[in-house]
What we know:
single chain, about 160 residues, alpha+beta, Aminopeptidase, 4-stranded antiparallel β-sheet, 3-stranded antiparallel β-sheet, about 35% helix
Amino acid sequence: MGENIEYHFEKVTKSNLQDILNLHLPEEQKHFIETPLECLKEAEELNDWQPRGIYYRDQLIGFTMYGEILSEKRVWMDRLLIDHKFQGQGHGKKALSSLIAYLFRKYSCSEIYLSLYPDNQRAFTLYENLGFKLNGELDTKGELIMVLEKRTWLYNLENENRHYL
């Protein structure tokens, strides 16, 4: 699944800030990710991160933060949050697929990294289904690090497209 034009990522501005701050997760998911406010503070402190609203057509449905850590020579998809009202509708997979395609294009990278808590099974399954693999590393918070290689992504896209022929 590649880039879907119905999903796009917009900078956080005065006009969408309050809506982004009002995004929420179900109670059982809140310990897996920082709030949008905490993410925005971190992005302000560390210039490496690019916070964005996730939009489906013209509707804000979530938040993401990504960036390139030059000292590591890695592109990270650091945060992904789909608001509780939009979960279970396929938005997570489609938005993530669009984000992956965008990041590979924007950074001309060969890999995308992310980290997640070991007990975040729902996210793990989503990432694994899109081709991310555990690389055996842990981040500074003890989260598992997963990596998606561009060649794996392209192979999966090619195989998915064959189903439609």
